[in-house]
Amino acid sequence: MTNSPVSDTRTAVPSLTPLLSLVEADMVRVNATIRERMDSKVPLIPQLAGHLIASGGKRMRPMMTIAGAMMTGAPPDQRAPAILLSTAVEFIHSATLLHDDVIDESALRRGQDTANALWGNDAAVLVGDFLFARAFELMVESGDIRVLGRLSAASAQITEGEIRQMGITGQPDTAVDEYLDVIAGKTAVLFAAAAAAGAEISGGSPELVAAMHDYGMQLGMAFQIMDDALDYTADADAMGKNAGDDFADQKITLPTILAWQDGDEDERAFWQRTLGDADFTDGDLATAQTLLARHDAIDRAILRAQAFAESACNAIAPFTADPQTGALASALAEAARFAALRTS
Amino acid sequence: MTNSPVSDTRTAVPSLTPLLSLVEADMVRVNATIRERMDSKVPLIPQLAGHLIASGGKRMRPMMTIAGAMMTGAPPDQRAPAILLSTAVEFIHSATLLHDDVIDESALRRGQDTANALWGNDAAVLVGDFLFARAFELMVESGDIRVLGRLSAASAQITEGEIRQMGITGQPDTAVDEYLDVIAGKTAVLFAAAAAAGAEISGGSPELVAAMHDYGMQLGMAFQIMDDALDYTADADAMGKNAGDDFADQKITLPTILAWQDGDEDERAFWQRTLGDADFTDGDLATAQTLLARHDAIDRAILRAQAFAESACNAIAPFTADPQTGALASALAEAARFAALRTS
């Protein structure tokens, strides 16, 4: 990697490294704040929350807030409110993960036992509620009611997205647009609000705030489509979850929608029996993968993700020429392209 | 009742009626706002939330916010922010009820099937999350970051209280002080924050805000102790839940703690087998009721609730002499005494 002569050229394989380097110092502060603010006099809370939060995750959402703040040119000592917001964003995301795992009855996340598997659904629901409330305390502390508005609206939209996802679960004939609406709500709005809030609380111009919102939205769409596409290809090591989890959960995602649309009568009967009626037998996942390959459904989904990634790049393109913001804007563009790379 | 010649004297049986009359016009506005703001483009949300919220409930918490606002003397046309906050308080409370019913696996609340029984745990968790997020949107709209701070801190404390309640579940030797701490968190802090927030957002003096906070706290304690005590005496018609629900759920409440403390070896073995080990047989609830009666545990718990109710009265006593606030303060005092009346 370090010996690669093309690693700095525009045609190199996109990497997350430039963005990670730029936000690294602030993310150290965010991680310290996460540990500090998940604490409670009730020991179960830091235990359970720590298990989830310390288990890794890419911290993409809090990174959006930091990037938004840094894009304004605010110096590090004026980014304390953004650090609090960034922590709040990770807590909101963690709360939704805890509740998702309860709802999906998941036993494995990021390669580890889920909190609900270890501590029970009751504790996972309540600690999720705690993290959500604590997120709002952090936002209040950050002192800007505009960002509270952004993030509370995003939180409501996330749950609307999750409920709509429940609604399309087991419906293999779901339309692409409906799927896109669902993932916009359950995933992309938080990326968007996180990025915009970081810029807004750090005194960014309305143009920058709007650009970061748009960037986050498009990146979030790319991110979720890739997550859904790779569920049929990745192994547990790479994804931290098992390939085919979505299939077993009857989740309707872009690859299955495309395969349904192009499928003949027999293929649709297969999708209806499995995704529709949860009547699974051995070998069904392999059959699903065969059908997805027959219609190029994974690759076509990834192309769609790449189109969203390009839209994300376009959203911040006006800032790449500015000497103040150019390096970070270019790193954000590269991160968006990285998010839509096929990784298995 | 209408013929009773003593109904207006100080020694009459306390009633909620005077308070209800004074807040009635605002509560009509609150109820309209509740219906309006639980709406969503996702039909399941108003269906499920409406089932819970329309099923009644005493609306005690939002009433606290309205009373706090009215105590400031703010005229009706300046109480719009308090109406929003009051709605937010009911949504926070409703969210905790939805999640509680999931956790307790309750099938009946207020005499009706629970939301989780009708729509499933998944939907109840997510709609609870939605109401919580929507509550914060309403608070943002109310425009005062101080009340956001109060209500977000209260929300975090509620979940801490609920988690601590999980921790003492099945522990019949729990200390009274620990029980009081638990109910302060899970119940009283929301009454306190609701009452204080109503006064604060309507321009109340620091003294009034503090008094309403204290009033709400003490009233909330009385309210929860009574709820716990009556669980062993009420029938489903009066309580909207079944007598002995707490017993079956291994919940440790003030009556059981008092009976444990005064119990002999055989009695403690009974509480350990039932509340401790969930090894129930027919007739156990009747035995529990007999043991509670032997030690006067229900009546002693009610006396404790009455002491909290008197503390609530004391908290607002300075305002009963003021011609501007006297009628409402007296009605609040009477409501506190009503909350600690034995009703079965």
Care to give the gist of this entry?
Two copies of one chain form a homodimer. Chain A has 344 residues and is mostly helical. Chain A is built from 16 helices and two strands.
Overall number of strands of chain A: 2
Report strand order across the widest sheet of chain A: 1-2
Biggest interface, chains and residue tallies? A-B, 42 and 43 residues
| Order of SSEs of chain A | HHHHEEHHHHHHHHHHHH
Mean pLDDT of chain A: 91
Rg from alpha-carbon coordinates of chain A: 20 Å
How many DSSP helices of chain A?
A: 16
Uncertain residue segments of chain A: 1-10
Beta-strand proportion of chain A: under 5%
Oligomer: homodimer
Summing up helix and strand content along with how strands pair, one would put the structural category of chain A as mainly alpha
**End-to-end distance of chain A:** 19 Å
Shape of chain A: globular
| Biggest sheet record of chain A | 2 strands, antiparallel
Helicity of chain A, in percent? Answer: over 70%
Q: Can you describe what's shown?
A:
The structure is a homodimer of 344-residue chains. In chain A, 71% of the residues lie in helices and 1% in strands. The model of chain A is unreliable at 1-10 (pLDDT under 50). Chain A has 344 residues and is mainly α. Chains A and B meet through helix 4, helix 6 and helix 7 of A and helix 4, helix 6 and helix 7 of B.
Map the helices and strands.
The structure is a homodimer of 344-residue chains.
Chain A: H1 17-37, H2 44-54, H3 60-71, H4 80-104, E1 108-109, E2 112-113, H5 115-119, H6 121-142, H7 145-168, H8 176-201, H9 206-230, H10 236-239, H11 245-248, H12 254-262, H13 265-276, H14 284-294, H15 297-316, H16 326-339
Antiparallel strand pairs in A: 1-2
Helix pairs in contact in A: 1-3, 1-4, 1-16, 2-6, 3-4, 3-8, 4-6, 4-8, 7-8, 8-9, 9-15, 12-15, 15-16
